[in-house]
Amino acid sequence: MDMTRRGVATVLAAASAFPGLAAAQASPAPAEASPQTRLFLERRYLPVWRAIQAAPQDPGLQQMASFLGDEATALASAGLGPAGDPPLPADATAQDALAAIVEAARDRRVVVLNEAHVASRHRGFLARVLRALRPLGFDVLAAEDFLNSREPGAPTVRSYRAGAALDPSLGFYLHDPVYAEAVREAAGLGYRLASYEQREDQRVSGEDKLAAMARRETAEADNFIADVLAPNPGSRVLVHCGYSHLRKTPDHRGTTWFAARLEEKSGIDPLCVSQAYTGSFGPHGADPPMTTAVLERFRPTDSIVVRGANGWLGAEPAGADLAVFHPPLADVAGRPGWLAADHERRRVEVAAPRPRTATVLLQAVHAVDSDQAIPADQLVLAPEAASAVLFLRPGVYRLRLETETGLVPLRTLTV
């Protein structure tokens, strides 16, 4: 769990214990509240943007920059870890990533896909995996991010249905519009949503870091077996998590993570697919050496996996079965190229209201959602901008501006 999620842990707990905080008419956060608290309680992204401008190297704010499409800030240090990858084998061959995942998943009940929390693109790839696995009978999406509480009246993803308003209090990373759209699309495809994260009543205060990590991984595995697998005996499950939770082997410290504990406790061998460490953060961030070598050799136009004589590249260091490499796609109309390449989204050009003297956010919100909603897409609009491009799935939306003083409605849009 990263710094930003820890920073809002008390807010999540409050929303769980007092559902009124998470309702559409949530009370305003105190004026001195942190940007992440204001985002969680008020769905106010502009304070986050201002905080990022003031401290672009703050690790917690870097990942929140991904919620605003600011990949240069979000990915500034994402791929700069220690070198140590082996040379790219001369006999390495590339395959389409989705096709390889589908083939490997044919005889698996559980598939685990991870992400780097700073990379909105990784959450966009989740949507593509959801689409690819649905014809195989995968029908449950379980996510580490989903709020898991037994408090009476607490919101739960289990009650979410396609076409309904999506409660933003269900998960911190849901405040990334790309992730929220993936979850909405999952429900539309027929997936049921499930949570398995460690609950507050499963924590022990005062433990050292390694003991707390072990307790969390054990709780996640236990919860997954009891709350995801047991109630859905005939289902196949796609799991979405961060970083090392998908590891099937211990890390360098000897820590055993969620996927390994799940296999040990249930006997189920999950297919684990890593994105977090191969990264593929271009064109706005640096990539690890192995990823750079792969992309330079194969020059893919879509996501790939790469096989050498000794197995799938990038998988073993991540403790995974497969590792995905994403191509660096050039921006389109100032928006991420990978977002523009999503065939489920349509390009929509919007005239920007003028005159303006300050930076605002242009947002498209699903018509069924309240004003305190996670946008389906949004971007930062500089004062001089005359128009902007959104990428939206078919549907009905309300266009609006988030300004310093509040929300300014523009018009309804049907895509």
UniProtKB/TrEMBL annotation:
Signal peptide: 1-22
Keywords, sorted A to Z: Signal
Stored InterPro entries: TAT_signal
The name this protein goes by in its record: Erythromycin esterase
Naturally occurring in which organism (per UniProt): Caulobacter rhizosphaerae
Taxonomic lineage from the root: Bacteria, Pseudomonadati, Pseudomonadota, Alphaproteobacteria, Caulobacterales
